[in-house]
Amino acid sequence: MAHAREATTAAGSPPSSGGDAGTSITKTSLRTGGWLGYDEDALYVARDDRIKLRGEDVTRITLRVVEWDLVVMSLLLVGVGGYVSMTGNTLVGIGFAVVGALSLYRTYRKRYELEIRVEGGKSVTVYPAHPKRCHERLAGHLD
Protein backbone atom coordinates (compact mmCIF):
# COMPACT_ATOMS: atom_id res chain seq x y z
CA MET A 1 0.00 0.00 0.00
CA ALA A 2 1.40 3.37 -0.96
CA HIS A 3 -0.02 5.42 1.86
CA ALA A 4 -0.36 4.27 5.43
CA ARG A 5 -2.13 6.07 8.21
CA GLU A 6 -0.37 5.85 11.52
CA ALA A 7 -0.87 7.38 14.93
CA THR A 8 2.34 8.44 16.61
CA THR A 9 2.93 9.74 20.09
CA ALA A 10 4.77 12.90 21.00
CA ALA A 11 7.85 10.78 21.70
CA GLY A 12 7.45 8.91 18.40
CA SER A 13 8.40 9.76 14.87
CA PRO A 14 7.58 12.42 13.61
CA PRO A 15 7.14 14.81 16.48
CA SER A 16 3.66 15.98 17.32
CA SER A 17 2.96 19.44 16.02
CA GLY A 18 0.52 20.39 18.75
CA GLY A 19 0.25 20.01 22.47
CA ASP A 20 -1.88 16.86 22.23
CA ALA A 21 -0.67 13.37 23.05
CA GLY A 22 -0.48 12.29 19.41
CA THR A 23 -1.21 13.13 15.83
CA SER A 24 -2.36 11.15 12.82
CA ILE A 25 0.25 11.05 10.04
CA THR A 26 -0.40 9.87 6.48
CA LYS A 27 2.87 8.43 5.12
CA THR A 28 4.24 7.37 1.76
CA SER A 29 7.60 5.74 1.16
CA LEU A 30 10.44 7.30 -0.83
CA ARG A 31 12.46 5.46 -3.49
CA THR A 32 15.70 6.60 -1.88
CA GLY A 33 14.67 5.38 1.59
CA GLY A 34 12.71 7.10 4.31
CA TRP A 35 9.21 8.51 4.05
CA LEU A 36 7.15 11.62 3.37
CA GLY A 37 4.12 12.28 5.55
CA TYR A 38 1.55 14.91 6.37
CA ASP A 39 -1.03 15.73 8.98
CA GLU A 40 -3.48 18.61 9.47
CA ASP A 41 -0.85 21.35 9.66
CA ALA A 42 2.58 20.08 8.56
CA LEU A 43 4.60 17.99 6.11
CA TYR A 44 7.34 15.68 7.37
CA VAL A 45 10.29 14.30 5.42
CA ALA A 46 12.33 11.53 7.05
CA ARG A 47 15.49 10.54 5.21
CA ASP A 48 18.85 10.61 6.96
CA ASP A 49 17.54 13.59 8.91
CA ARG A 50 13.98 14.67 9.72
CA ILE A 51 12.46 17.82 8.34
CA LYS A 52 9.16 19.39 9.41
CA LEU A 53 7.55 21.90 7.05
CA ARG A 54 4.58 23.86 8.36
CA GLY A 55 1.65 23.76 5.96
CA GLU A 56 1.32 27.54 5.79
CA ASP A 57 5.00 27.86 4.79
CA VAL A 58 4.64 25.61 1.72
CA THR A 59 4.13 27.79 -1.36
CA ARG A 60 4.12 25.22 -4.20
CA ILE A 61 4.39 21.50 -4.86
CA THR A 62 5.69 20.49 -8.29
CA LEU A 63 6.04 17.06 -9.88
CA ARG A 64 8.67 16.96 -12.61
CA VAL A 65 8.45 13.80 -14.72
CA VAL A 66 11.96 13.94 -16.18
CA GLU A 67 14.48 16.58 -17.19
CA TRP A 68 14.00 16.33 -20.94
CA ASP A 69 16.92 18.60 -21.80
CA LEU A 70 19.30 16.18 -20.05
CA VAL A 71 17.70 13.19 -21.77
CA VAL A 72 18.22 14.77 -25.20
CA MET A 73 21.80 15.83 -24.35
CA SER A 74 22.63 12.32 -23.09
CA LEU A 75 21.21 10.66 -26.18
CA LEU A 76 23.16 13.07 -28.38
CA LEU A 77 26.36 12.19 -26.53
CA VAL A 78 25.73 8.49 -27.08
CA GLY A 79 25.01 9.13 -30.76
CA VAL A 80 28.11 11.30 -31.25
CA GLY A 81 30.16 8.67 -29.43
CA GLY A 82 28.87 5.95 -31.73
CA TYR A 83 29.57 8.06 -34.82
CA VAL A 84 33.08 9.04 -33.71
CA SER A 85 33.98 5.47 -32.77
CA MET A 86 32.91 4.18 -36.21
CA THR A 87 34.45 6.93 -38.33
CA GLY A 88 37.44 8.12 -36.36
CA ASN A 89 39.03 7.56 -33.00
CA THR A 90 37.42 4.52 -31.37
CA LEU A 91 38.61 5.31 -27.85
CA VAL A 92 37.29 8.89 -27.92
CA GLY A 93 33.97 7.67 -29.33
CA ILE A 94 33.59 5.06 -26.61
CA GLY A 95 34.38 7.73 -24.03
CA PHE A 96 31.59 9.98 -25.35
CA ALA A 97 29.15 7.06 -25.43
CA VAL A 98 29.98 6.03 -21.84
CA VAL A 99 29.56 9.59 -20.54
CA GLY A 100 26.23 9.85 -22.38
CA ALA A 101 25.02 6.51 -21.01
CA LEU A 102 26.00 7.44 -17.44
CA SER A 103 24.23 10.78 -17.77
CA LEU A 104 21.12 9.04 -19.10
CA TYR A 105 21.14 6.57 -16.19
CA ARG A 106 21.53 9.38 -13.64
CA THR A 107 18.67 11.29 -15.27
CA TYR A 108 16.50 8.16 -15.18
CA ARG A 109 17.11 7.73 -11.44
CA LYS A 110 15.92 11.31 -10.84
CA ARG A 111 12.61 10.83 -12.68
CA TYR A 112 9.38 11.86 -10.97
CA GLU A 113 10.99 14.44 -8.74
CA LEU A 114 8.61 16.02 -6.23
CA GLU A 115 9.75 19.51 -5.29
CA ILE A 116 8.22 21.20 -2.26
CA ARG A 117 8.87 24.95 -2.24
CA VAL A 118 8.84 26.79 1.06
CA GLU A 119 8.65 30.51 1.84
CA GLY A 120 12.06 32.10 1.63
CA GLY A 121 13.02 30.41 -1.66
CA LYS A 122 14.07 27.11 -0.10
CA SER A 123 12.90 23.80 -1.50
CA VAL A 124 12.92 20.15 -0.51
CA THR A 125 13.21 17.52 -3.25
CA VAL A 126 12.02 13.96 -2.72
CA TYR A 127 11.45 10.91 -4.93
CA PRO A 128 8.22 9.13 -3.82
CA ALA A 129 7.61 5.48 -4.65
CA HIS A 130 4.18 6.45 -6.08
CA PRO A 131 4.78 10.03 -7.30
CA LYS A 132 1.52 10.86 -9.09
CA ARG A 133 -0.69 9.69 -6.24
CA CYS A 134 1.55 11.43 -3.69
CA HIS A 135 1.44 14.71 -5.66
CA GLU A 136 -2.36 14.58 -5.94
CA ARG A 137 -2.83 13.92 -2.24
CA LEU A 138 -0.38 16.60 -1.09
CA ALA A 139 -1.81 19.19 -3.49
CA GLY A 140 -5.34 18.37 -2.32
CA HIS A 141 -4.30 18.48 1.32
CA LEU A 142 -2.61 21.88 1.09
CA ASP A 143 -5.40 23.62 -0.87
TrEMBL record:
Biased composition, class Low complexity, residue ranges: 7-24
Superkingdom of origin: Archaea
Transmembrane portions of the chain: 90-108
Region annotation (Disordered) ranges: 1-25
Keyword field: Membrane, Transmembrane, Transmembrane helix
Protein name: Uncharacterized protein
